[in-house]
Q: What sequence folds into this?
């Protein structure tokens, strides 16, 4: 099957995209199973070997909130650095920032919410409060020459509030852009986006003068819509997409266990569209199959399900 | 979650589509579990109550080939007819046609292959041979005023031949159109299509003068691409889509157990796009959850996975 899919470009789509791998952070933080530090390091080193160049490594959120990633400093020390590969880490506040810097982080990501209710439930603050919490961290990073990514949760729907008005998302995105976030990742935290909604939001953001080159799209596949939504994002000119190797992870507030868009499913579509991404799909499938074994459950990725079972017995990793 | 997804139409898409339900036939014929006749009848009656208007009921293929559907005549007798609902049945040849007519079929579907190797492996004939086998059946149906749908397998890739040239598909589609098939369903039997490939094939078919209103698209979700491919089909103006309730079934020749596009996942996207289809998603999810229980395994549909587990305990069916 290595010669498939056929390559059929669609006119008007980008020639190249950046895949931003969130498996080690967004994936593992939402898995019930707590993975040991050594396995995390092997996983991240394996991801590097697939050609991925942006791999979010861990989170310096309080271990009381996210015990899955309590070993953030050890993971960062264990993976070291690799030429041409970025390893951003998530930081929630000043304490997290201090820990991240002490651990040698060279790029960070902060997170805020587009809805009041999720800001309250997940961050114990308000929409404004979350942005105010992030502001000094972003400024400090800028002074240290450290790139900052800003995540916005609940950009399409909220499990409590339902519909999320586009104007509300726009306001938060604009504030993160003004703060100096290099990239702003629009999160469909509960997976309810559909392709027209994606286009409407992107057009509205574009209308404020924020370029598509400053945006990333972060889809969850809860209702199977993630790839159709990526296609919509590609048509609008967005060139950065978050995905999780093997589809690991999810949102504890979403209704189902199906979480992040699987990197493999995204790579398959990009291969078909002839869009460059630099990733070796076969290696990635092998790695995700191995990781699914560590997590003790089948991978939710369709591509991993289809290809791993027939893969060569000798592991690449 | 009933108020989600938000409705955001995309300019240029059809306002309404026909969903052609293939679960009772294409789904059940590929399941290992042989479902009893009573359950099949309950399933089809349940599907009718969801608002579906085209439900392929069974297949008059030889029971030696497809033991799962050996009870075709009993199923057709058991479901009877219902106002405004079509129940096509699959017929492979003259013997199947005679059995179908004797059982009271009022609409049929025939099938051919776009590739020589699949024609050989699945039908024990050639591409030409399959069309010659179908020709008298189609003519007989036309004389009896019975509508005929033509399925073309392996329109995008073939597990043995790999890439399938568009010209090869075009030739088969044209011959089915000339024979008098009312609708021609383009099958991605092994799930390897991607959105650019879909557009390229549809544009090529359109170039021969065959209208998009004579086409249906039949995607498998083996690599997670089915909905992105539907989106591509919608942009090209195709208004009929095959799907299987709960995503049951698959192709025994494909690499994985993930088979047909789940009707629920399709309905979710159409709801978001504001495209009319007439189906009650909640009822369908309940029915598919019930059917997954009968099949003894979880539904591969993302929407069923997400919504069934929290559904009201009292069954609608």
A:
């Amino acid at each position: 099957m290595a010669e498939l899919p056929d390559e059929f470009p669609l006119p008007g789509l980008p020639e190249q995209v950046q895949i931003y791998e969130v498996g080690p952070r967004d994936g593992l933080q939402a898995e019930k199973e707590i993975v040991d530090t050594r396995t995390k390091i092997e996983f991240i080193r394996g991801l590097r070997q697939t050609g991925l160049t942006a791999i979010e490594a861990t989170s310096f959120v309080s271990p009381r909130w996210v015990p899955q990633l309590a070993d953030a400093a050890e993971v960062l020390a264990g993976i070291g650095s690799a030429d041409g590969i970025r390893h951003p880490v998530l930081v929630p506040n000043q304490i997290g920032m201090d820990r991240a810097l002490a651990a040698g982080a060279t790029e960070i990501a902060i997170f805020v919410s587009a809805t009041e209710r999720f800001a309250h439930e997940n961050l114990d603050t308000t929409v404004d409060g979350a942005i105010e919490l992030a502001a000094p961290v972003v400024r400090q990073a800028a002074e240290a020459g450290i790139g900052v990514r800003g995540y916005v949760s609940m950009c399409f729907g909220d499990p409590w509030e339902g519909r999320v008005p586009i104007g509300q998302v726009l306001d938060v995105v604009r504030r993160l852009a003004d703060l100096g976030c290099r990239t702003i990742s629009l999160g469909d935290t509960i997976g309810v986006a559909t392709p027209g909604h994606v286009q409407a939001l992107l057009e509205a953001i574009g209308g404020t003068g924020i370029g598509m080159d400053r945006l990333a799209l972060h889809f969850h596949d809860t209702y199977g819509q993630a790839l159709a939504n990526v296609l919509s994002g590609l048509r609008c000119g967005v060139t950065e997409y978050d995905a999780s190797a093997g589809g690991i992870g999810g949102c504890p507030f979403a209704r189902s266990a199906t979480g992040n868009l699987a990197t493999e499913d995204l790579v398959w579509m990009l291969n078909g569209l002839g869009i460059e991404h630099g990733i070796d799909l076969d290696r990635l499938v092998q790695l995700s199959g191995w990781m699914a074994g560590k997590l003790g459950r089948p991978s939710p990725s369709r591509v991993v399900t289809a290809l791993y079972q027939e893969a060569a017995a000798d592991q690449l990793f």
Notes: Chain B has one domain: 18-308.
